[in-house]
Each structure stands twice: as C-alpha cells, then as structure tokens.
Amino acid sequence: MDQKQKVVLAVGIGAAALLGAAAAYKLYKKSNQMKTSKQLVKGWKACGVVSQLHIFPIKSCHGIEVEEADAQKMGLVSGELQDRSFMVYNESNNFLHARLHPTMVLIKISVSDNKVELTAPNSGPITFSIPSQSETEKQVKVRVWGDEVTAFDCGDQVSQWLSQYIFQQDTGARLAHLSYPEISPRVVKSKLGHPWMKPKDGGVFSDTTPFHLLSVESANDLNSRVDGLEISASYFRPTITISGCQRPYEEDDWRFVRIGEQAIFRYVKGCDRCVLTTIDPATGIKDPDLEPLRTLRKYRLAEDPVLRRAIGESPLLGINLSLEQSGRIRIGDVVYVGQL
Predict the structure, then answer these.
(1) Strands 174-177 and 147-153: what pairing?
(2) In this structure, are strands 211-215 and 240-243 parallel, antiparallel, or unpaired?
(3) Run of H or E residues at 276
(4) Three-state secondary structure string covering 206-254
(5) Which residues contact 313 (CB under 8 A, 6 or more apart)?
(6) Which helix (H) or strand (E) holds 309?
(7) In what order do the strands lie in the sheet with 75-78?
(8) Which residue in 233, 240, 190 sits closest to 212, CA to CA?
(9) What is the per-residue DSSP string for 50-77?
C-alpha cells in the first residue's frame, strides 16, 4: 500500500468513526429520553435534607422563602405563590431580565386574594389584580429565549410602574402572567450533550426547567475559592437548596431525586451559569470582577467535549430538574437519590 492509499484509508476510517459516534450518541439520547424513574430506579439512598425552598413569582425578580410547597409540573406552588408565573417583557414582546437590568432582583411581590403588590427601592408600592384568563382581550404572545408563550397582560398601571423603575420612563416594560392549572410546558429545544432532556421539560417563564437544585456544600466550596466576596447559594437562585451532602458537587451525578415520600424529580442537565450569578441579590449590584463567575470558569467548565461545544465557557453549578411525580415538599425533608 503506497502513502496515498494509506492517507485515503485513514481519512475513510476517521469519517466512519465520526459517523459511528454520531449514530451511537443519537441512540443513547433517544433511549435515555424514554426512561422514567419506575424503569430505572432500583432503590433510594438518603443523601441530604432540604434546607431552603424559594419561589420566584416574577422571572428575574426577588425570591420568597417558604417552609413548604407543592411540587407541580410547572414549578413550586405555595398558596397563591407560583414560581415564575409572572414575567416582565418589553415593547418587542421579549422578556426582560436582570442580566441587563440588575436592579430587577430587588422587585418584591406579595399575592393575596388574587391581588398583587409590588415594591422596590425608591418606589412607592403598587397594587393590581391578576388578570382573568377568560379575558381574551388581554392575551399577549411573549417570547422566552425565542420560544413563544401566550400569556395575559397585567395592565397599563403596573406597566408604567415597572417602566419607571427599570428605565426611568413611562413606557418600555410590561408584565405578563400565566396561572399554572391553565398551561402546558414550554417546548424546549434539546442540545447536544443533554441526553436526558425531553421536549416538554420546559417551564413557563423559567429559562429551561421548572426546578433548580443546589447543595450548600457546592456553594460553600465555591465560596472558599473566591477572595473578598461572601457567596451564598442565593446568588444562584435555586428553588430547592439542600444540605448534608458527603461532598461538594455530589448532585452532578444524581439522575432521579425523591424529596419526602412522594415528589420525584428527574435530572435534565447541569445548570450552566451566566452573568446573573455576579449580581448581589441583596443589593442588585454587579460585581466588578465578575465573581463568582470568573472563579467558576477556572474549574467548573464542562468536561464532555460535546456539551462543551454546546455551552462554551458557561460553567456548571447545580442541576436542572423536571417533575416525574408531584408531591408536597418541606424544609427538613430527607432527600433521596435513585439507585439506578
């Protein structure tokens, strides 16, 4: 065999290997998407306890700590509080977020008898009614990362209040709402490197899935690596915070999680972090050194080359979950990981 034939053969083998790897990955992805906890879990092992539960009623705004909540398909629910059932959007109907408008994290909400009150620093409170989902004239199509969602606009009064707080003008921001019982999951587009993701794993207004779990041990380990800044789990806006893990980042390897006796969650993907993690949730001020994102990039970039190509330089911390079985969860509940 001459040198030219050797080169041609090597190229052919390389191409075949690439095609084989792609086919294998496609089969792996498809098979994993079909599996459920009932098919895979052989037993449950205790791995920690719930230390905090947070509901973020308005996307990118202040969270509310609760003692217990119902884990429903679209997120945590406690009384009239529903996680990310409200979303601020602009005049182009695209969502507004704290990555570009950091002081949004200081907007607080309370809900009682279908009435909503918003407060924020240097702004008087505003109260308005949640729009009825029978009011078709208030329907509006809004977009979350390019995905279109039909929601209901909350009116001009709160629009002016939000616009003045965010933009210091009378227009530019509006508020949309969707009530959980009336909606279906937003269909999310699966990416390479996310073999556990299913099309209906999306939330309503959340970036991807309705649930985000983070361990205190992971947050503490990161905190020990960042100089001059006190980093808590709250910087990462988890809905479920747990403690008592044997090691930091243990949650990376969990594929099914049970909390208490009923609620079961399925791993969808590691949570890729963005500039929102650099905004102090207590002050709304972005860290000038982009911490803790800068430190995370030193040791928490995706190791899998397929996933790395998909998410680039976004480091991973915590996990995104989808709900397999609903149930009530409480602070202090034992958290179990499914033994596959």
Answers:
(1) antiparallel
(2) parallel
(3) none
(4) CCCCCEEEEEHHHHHHHHHHCCCCCCCHHHHCCCEEEECCCCCCHHHHC
(5) 297, 301
(6) helix 305-311
(7) 81-82, 75-78, 68-72, 327-330
(8) 240
(9) EEEEEE-SBTTS--EEESEEEEETTEEE
Q: How far apart are CA 319 and CA 92, in angstroms?
A: 31
Residue with tokens 């269909």: 187
Q: What is the pLDDT of residues 79-127, one digit of tens each?
A: 999 999 999 999 999 999 999 999 999 999 999 999 999 999 999 999 9
- pLDDT tens digits for 173-227? 999 999 877 667 788 877 789 999 998 899 989 999 999 999 999 999 999 999 9
pTM of the entire predicted model:
0.89
Task: For residue 257, count CB atoms less than 10 angstroms from its CB and return exposed for 0-12, middle for 13-18, buried for 19 or more.
Answer: buried
